[in-house]
From TrEMBL:
Residues annotated as domain Core-binding (CB): 149-253
Name under which the protein is recorded: Integrase
InterPro entries per the UniProt record, alphabetical: CB, DNA_brk_join_enz, Integrase-like_cat_sf, Integrase_catalytic, Integrase_recombinase_N, Integrase_SAM-like_N, Tyrosine_recombinase_XerCD
Organism: Frankia canadensis
SUPFAM superfamilies: DNA breaking-rejoining enzymes
Pfam families: Phage_int_SAM_3 (PF14659), Phage_integrase (PF00589)
Record bears the keyword Chloroplast: no
This protein's UniProt keywords: DNA integration, DNA recombination, DNA-binding
Domain Tyr recombinase intervals: 295-490
Length: 505
């Protein structure tokens, strides 16, 4: 054995393949032979005191060398690391290696190989060795032993593994991860993520919002050009960002990677959906005078709806808009109706919602509640029969140019409608009619409002609209109910038969 080198056999678990594990502590320096220019390494005469085998403290640094358990190929796994100021520091790191290698149960070859891989990676990348206590905890939870997994790395893994979600949901997750989560917290080790990190994330989003507001109000031309197209992030979007992170972290808990989900405890504004408001006469007057719309979700009164349908009667999309206004299917669901889904020749008249058209094409409704049967009144069924005859006439006129999609609502050659084009055409009709603005989606709210005014309860309206939860229905329409109270009271009164009563003057 060379002077100053210490060979120690590891106690603890039996090494893979039964080969002994050794440690060597020694000193080296960066000096070179003046003649050959080759590194002297441990043979530099300046490493030891003259006339003694003891090491000088003012020259060179300490190294260790270890023989780790060999890999599956049985080859020697020799590793070396230097740069320690003292031999004790090198010894302590080798002690940590020993503690890491003692974690796997006897005979757990895969576990031992995973621990060895962590040690080799830390030595090769010149990063600190993982904490044995943390790795032992991970080993007991039977999870990935790598403590270097970052939040961004896990978010990528999690999203790649979500194979059963719709494309629109996946796109929403991807946007939240790419634009909001990875830039702010992506580099944080997953197991070290805290509520404080998430509070900082949303504080930075708020600061960005304030900057955008300032630039819009008083910014220079250069600042306005830089921030052109940047949108404010509202409370509802913050909730969606947190929901994405919460789902990903819950998956990490199920896999034993973390023990607690900090996204459950960070406090941000509720971001409740906007309440629906009726376009009352007073609100219409205020809109005409100022152009202000009192809510993002506005609902026409029956009189305004009737005005619109009268104005739109010559439009190719008249029946589609009437169906949404009276019975409340979503725009994409109405565009995806197939003729076999309609029962319009004999009572009871119904429409079965089985499909929807989105920007990604045809798909099933986004929830089980979306797959539903909607009743039609006799007059609406008659309109569909007339629409069928008109479509058959267009089909004959188009000849071979006709695309046989089987859809109820098509373009002039039978192809499916683009829901975005439907939205655009609706907005043009509303403007031409001089009506207070609503979105085509708000025709669903009109259908719900008409049902409530007729005395339907929220559960019935939930089924009509295909909401997955009655809470969604209640949150949207509780502000409409007081304004409909008089109409509901009158309907209830008419349902109670009364004998004629003499009336006093």
């Amino acid at each position: 054995m060379d002077a100053g080198r210490i060979f120690i056999r590891f106690p603890g678990p039996t090494p893979i393949q039964g080969s002994p594990v050794k440690r060597t502590i020694f000193k080296r320096c960066g000096c070179k032979d003046p003649n050959t220019r080759k590194p002297l390494g441990g043979n530099c005469p300046r490493l030891r005191r003259k006339g003694s085998n003891s090491w000088r403290s003012d020259h060179g640094t300490w190294y260790y060398a270890v023989d780790l358990p060999p890999g599956p190929d049985g080859k020697r796994n020799h590793r070396r690391r230097g740069g320690f100021a003292t031999s004790d520091a090198a010894e302590r790191e080798v002690d940590r290696i020993e503690n890491l290698l003692a974690i796997p149960d006897p005979g757990d070859t895969a576990g031992m190989q995973a621990v060895v891989a962590l040690i080799v990676a830390a030595i090769g990348e010149r990063t600190p060795l993982p904490d044995p206590g943390e790795i032992a905890g991970r080993y007991q939870r039977k999870t990935d032993l790598d403590p270097t997994l970052t939040v961004g790395g896990w978010l990528d893994q999690w999203l790649a593994g979500r194979r059963t979600i719709s494309r629109s949901t996946r796109d929403g997750y991807e946007i939240n991860i790419r634009l909001h989560l990875k830039p702010y917290i992506g580099d944080i080790p997953l197991h070290l993520l805290t509520v404080g990190h998430l509070e900082d994330l949303f504080d930075q989003i708020d600061a960005q919002n304030e900057t955008i507001r300032r630039v819009r109000a008083t910014g220079t031309a250069a600042e306005k050009a830089e921030f052109k197209g940047r949108r404010l992030m509202g409370d509802a979007n913050k909730q969606r960002v947190r929901a994405t992170l919460r789902a990903a972290l819950n998956a990490a808990i199920r896999r034993g990677k973390i023990m607690m989900n900090p996204a459950q405890f960070v406090e941000i504004p509720s971001g409740k959906r906007p309440k629906a408001l009726l376009w009352t006469a007073e609100r219409v007057v205020h809109w005409l005078e100022t152009g202000e719309v009192p809510s993002k979700v506005m609902v026409w009164t029956p009189d305004l709806a009737g005005h619109f349908l009268d104005h739109a009667e010559d439009s190719p999309l008249y029946l589609l808009f009437r169906l949404i206004a009276q019975r409340g299917p979503r725009r994409g669901e109405a565009c995806a109706l197939h003729w076999p889904d309609l029962a319009i020749d004999t009572a009871p008249y119904t429409v079965t919602i089985r499909w929807q058209i989105t920007r990604y094409g045809m798909s099933t409704p986004k929830s089980d509640a979306g797959d539903r049967v909607i009743s039609l009144d006799a007059d609406l069924a008659r309109e569909f029969r007339l629409h069928r005859r008109r479509q058959q006439a267009r089909r004959l006129a188009a000849g071979p140019r006709w695309t046989d999609t089987g859809l109820v609502f098509t373009d002039e050659f039978g192809a499916a409608l683009n829901p975005d084009h439907v939205r655009r055409d609706f907005a043009a009709l509303v403007e031409n009619a001089g009506l207070p603005p609503i979105r085509v989606h708000d025709l669903r709210h009109l259908a719900a409002t008409l049902a409530l005014a007729a005395g339907a309860d929220l559960k019935t309206v939930q089924a009509l609209l295909g909401h997955s939860s009655i809470a969604i229905t209640a949150d949207t329409y509780t502000h409409v109910l007081p304004e409909l109270a008089e109409a509901i009271a009158e309907n209830v009164a008419r349902l109670i038969p009364r004998a004629p009563q003499p009336r006093s003057a």
